[in-house]
Amino acid sequence: MWAKLSADMVAPKERFDFPAEARARALRERIDAFIEHNLGDPALTPGLIAAAHGISVRALHLLFRDQPQSVAATVRHRRLERCRSDLARPELAARSVRDIAARWCFSSAPVFGRSFREAYGTSPGAFRREAARASGR
User: Is the confidence at residue 13, as pLDDT, over 70?
Assistant: First the structure.
């Protein structure tokens, strides 16, 4: 019996990692949903995200260490995706590029323009014109 108890106490590490790994994955999924739900909030920062989930900013960054992007880069990328989508929508053609950028929390037009060009290889205005041409507008 002592041998069995001892063997259980020194069981392989993997046996105990799965629950922690599953908890971390579930937390990342909740954080992902929170980010999606709050993309239009200019206060959406790693600090706010961490506080909303009862963890430290450091713990939040650790959760994202094996992800392709940091927390802040994830938020910025998703906001750029929303801007790109809105720029291509015919029903939003009357809204200015600046208004669309502001809707997704880009407060500076030059910063938005540089970020958009870096992400998509073209300016927001050129992208919008090409999207309009492609849709026959």
Answer: no
What does the alpha-carbon distance between residue 102 and residue 90 come to, in Å, rounded to a whole number? 18
CATH code 1.10.10.60 for 19-134 = yes
Nearest alpha carbon to residue 124 among 81, 65, 76, 73: 81
SS3 132: helix
Q: How far apart are CA 77 and CA 72, in angstroms?
A: 9
Determine the pLDDT at residue 2.
Answer: 45
Cβ neighbours for 36, distance < 8 A, ≥ 6 positions apart:
78
For residue 23, what is the DSSP state? H
Token code pair at residue 24: 């971390």
Q: Look at residues 67, 79, 75 and name the one whose alpha carbon lies nearest to residue 25.
A: 67
> Which letter does DSSP use for residue 43 in this model?
T
Instruction: Give DSSP secondary structure letters for 50-119.
Output: HHHTT--HHHHHHHTTTSSS-HHHHHHHHHHHHHHHHHH-GGGTTS-HHHHHHHTT---HHHHHHHHHHH
pTM (2 d.p.): 0.82
Enumerate the domain spans of the chain: 19-134
